[in-house]
Write a structure and sequence with these properties.
The structure is a homodimer. Chain A is of the alpha+beta class. The first copy, chain A, has 15 helices and 23 strands. Chain A folds into 3 domains: about 270 residues, BirA Bifunctional Protein, domain 2 (2-Layer Sandwich); about 100 residues, Rossmann fold (3-Layer(aba) Sandwich), CATH 3.40.50.800; about 70 residues, C-terminal domain of ProRS (Translation Initiation Factor IF3, 2-Layer Sandwich), CATH 3.30.110.30. In chain A, strands 3-7-8-14-11-10-9 form a 7-stranded mixed sheet, with helices on both faces. In chain A, helix 2 crosses helix 6. At the A-B interface, strand 2, helix 2, strand 3, strand 4 and strand 5 of A face strand 2, helix 2, strand 3, strand 4 and strand 5 of B.
Chain lengths: ~475, ~475
């Protein structure tokens, strides 16, 4: 990254305190840490290099897992003719109000307007109908990395923007069982990915009818709890059943020679994951990045005493080289124009997991000072064996961030049996509130209207029989539900 | 990839012979080898998994080089407000006739139409004006991987499509010298990349005024020669001078405290590179993929004799595992429904560099049969030490493809001193024709009108003094020029 002129950036103290206004803290931090910026196009963000580097680590980790489970990548057109989007009735109803329309190409008005893809079921379904003929062609297991446009009225950097980046998997199967198996396999893959790489614990479950994807038979999701006690949907996996197959006429000759519709799935995760990382791990001093997705895992700050460029800097460079050789991502901040104190604050704000200080006294003692971003512990550490020790510490920080987030999630999950209990809990201390629910969408809407809380997920397994009284209407519940105010 | 039903695909013989109609051969091959397909959106292609895998290897190789030279990735919005595109006069004149317009978002007509990016100088320039304040912020070295839309009237899979994928670098510098240095550094990087990874020799040079990028001060390009003797522009690197800085008001405080405009560059390579790979290396039997970008470098075809699944297949699997462990990309084609002969043709068509046959007799002799796709040599090879031998052969094939393409290029490059010579050569045997040129755009246009040939590149260095008479008008030439009919 290019060096910045200190005078031109708002000082670190200008970030709104997290405890005072979580939402402003978030936006201030995203901009001040140069993760993203507003653009001249309403609702569209620019992902700056420091933020995009996090996205590249997310992409790499996720793409490896998607390929390891037998999927391949492909690329489908950005534009979808209006007539294709409208083929699946629920789908068009869900998406038509929030799409961007291309009506002119070059100098001519288009006969049929094109939609900028809000998701790609329609265009991919059309191609699958062309490519799939026999059971021998199945399964088709394709993923795409792409940009997506949804015309949002209220936007927030990373969390909800008119354009965002994502991956979308689209698969076709011979049987209903295989499609369900795929849907759940991806849900588990998403959970493992987010927990391992982003150190964010999630609740995996099934969406209620009113929260499911437009056109899906069944939607599963993983839900994470942010630092302000609001939930964020981190990834979704849809069993499409035969809905899109019937709308797009995706048929195959089965083993018994009969013509059958394929069974479909689709699933996606987006750049909003970066927002989740910020909101789950960030603190009053700024970002706290999990080592596995941190652009720099270690920042080296040489302490400038006397002719430090001749005495300290060569040692700092040697240490950098030994860490890089061990596969650690290192920034050596040897800028003259800034004091060590300023650099400490700056790299804390940018969430670098480990700071390494080295000055003349450290060199005498053949040691360095390590400082953990998460616990702020300062650890004098011998230069001998440093790369191994740094790797251990990075792994420990990754684990510790997960443990802390899990403790927060558990601490912010409560049960409510009565409506009175429910409303009080939703006011007093936000988070997940688990409560029995009758299964009625009207009741679900009433709860939302009264408390802003929505059903984030239902348990994976349906309950065995009628349960405790619904928290709202007291009729017998069909299952528990995780309620929360959500992004 | 999913298995295909033999009966549903056109037979291999249905590909138009290359010698008969190069253009139809190309399109037949792209579709039959499942690299890409037409989509329901006019001019937009679907890049299928086998084609996209090649793109992923191109991305990886190019991205590594871009980062190794100090650049970072970022992401800028897909949409550009009309008012921004029109700020640079030549730029808008060049691109306005070929952009897609978004005029409606959700349910509302937009007050200001948005352009779907045909290139990102305008949006990136706007952000740079916001981010860059001091000489300390320079250089800014940002690259973006993105989709691009240009409303093309005549399209061809990979070579010219309404939507394509690319990378675009956009840099800002303190001095004119640094900008020129960057422009040439990237040109050299592109040349090295295309020659090393794609085994395609290129001519690096400078564009004439009429062929340069709309808004650039100077455009450099690398030009490759296709199998039909037509040239293809494979990558461009533009020195933008201060044109965009002035249009977008990108200023910085210089070391002497004065306010200065930055010096800019931009540069890009696209999915058309896949088209170049096909047209340079392909032959009558189909694709010939350079090992470094081949999705599969080796295909193993077990010879089915007797109970081959018990006798031959375990050996084939063992060999596959040993090759994969050595970092080789392997496909083991153990499908029952196809004969070895069919598989040989199919994987030849798909351009896999090495075929490995193994049958009962080979197992007895502790050997396998290797067959090179490029030379069709068959090489009985001991199982002992096989991975090392395969790696040697893959390197040899990569080199041999480059050598062959270079020989073809040299064989199809001639000089012409007179107009008569020039027109005869352009008719008779297409390729590069090097000829002296007066530097006049009118003369350049006359040559194009008469022969369809355009100036692909001028030499990097201007000639020392007046040269031989211009091949068209006989006035003194300013330099030689590479002429060719081009894609």
């Amino acid at each position: 990254m290019a060096e910045k002129d200190e005078n031109k950036e708002p000082a670190i103290t200008e970030i709104t305190p997290k405890s005072e206004d979580f939402s402003r803290w978030y936006t201030d931090l995203v901009r001040r840490a140069e993760l993203a910026d507003y653009s001249p196009v309403k609702g569209c963000m620019v992902i700056r290099p420091y933020g995009y580097a996090i996205w590249e680590f997310i992409q790499r980790g996720l793409d490896d897992r998607i390929k390891a489970t037998g999927h391949v990548n492909a690329y489908f057109p950005l534009f979808i003719p209006k007539s294709l989007l409208t083929k699946e009735a629920e789908h068009v109803e869900g998406f038509a109000p929030q799409v961007a329309w291309v009506t002119r190409g070059g100098t001519e008005e288009l006969e049929e307007p094109l939609v900028v893809r809000p998701t790609s079921e329609a265009i991919i379904g059309t191609m699958y109908a062309k490519w799939i003929q026999s059971w021998r062609d199945l399964p088709v297991l394709i993923n795409q990395w792409a940009n997506i446009v949804r015309w949002e009225k209220v936007t927030r950097l990373f969390l909800r923007t008119t354009e965002f980046l994502w991956q979308e998997g689209h698969t076709a199967h011979e049987t209903a069982e295989e499609a369900e198996e795929e849907t759940l396999k991806i849900l588990a893959l998403y959970k493992e990915f987010v927990e391992t790489e982003l150190a964010i614990p999630v609740i995996a479950g099934r969406k209620s009818e009113s929260e499911k994807f437009a056109g899906a038979g069944r939607t599963y999701s993983i839900e994470a709890l942010m630092g302000d006690g609001r939930a964020l949907q981190a990834g979704t996996s849809h069993n499409l059943g035969q809905n899109f197959a019937k709308a797009f006429d995706i048929k195959f000759q089965a083993r018994d020679k009969s013509l059958q519709y394929i069974w479909g799935t689709s699933w996606g995760m987006t750049t909003r994951l970066i927002g989740a990382v910020i909101m789950v791990h960030g603190d009053e001093s700024g970002l706290v990045l999990p080592p596995r997705v941190a652009p720099y895992q270690v920042v080296i700050v040489p302490i400038p005493r006397g002719n430090w460029r001749e005495t300290v800097l060569p040692h700092a460079r040697q240490i950098r080289d030994s860490l890089v050789a061990a596969g650690v991502r290192v920034m050596l901040d040897d800028r003259d124009a800034y004091t060590p104190g300023w650099k400490f604050s700056e790299w804390e704000l940018r969430g670098v997991p480990l700071r390494l200080e080295i000055g003349p006294k450290d060199i005498e003692k053949q040691q360095v000072m390590l400082a953990r971003r998460d616990t702020r512990e300062k650890l004098p550490t011998p230069v001998a064996g440093l790369p191994g020790r740094v790797q251990e510490l990075l792994a420990a920080i990754q684990q510790s961030l997960f443990d802390r987030a899990l403790a927060f999630q558990l601490d912010h999950t409560s049960r409510a049996a009565t409506w009175d209990e429910f409303t009080k809990t939703m006011e007093g201390r936000p988070g997940f509130v688990v409560a029995p629910w009758c299964g009625d969408a009207v009741c679900e809407a009433d709860i939302k209207a009264a408390t802003q809380a929505t059903i984030r997920n239902l348990p994976m397994e349906a309950a065995a029989g009628p349960g405790a009284p619904c928290v709202k209407c007291s009729r017998p519940s069909v299952s528990d539900a995780w309620f929360a105010k959500a992004y």
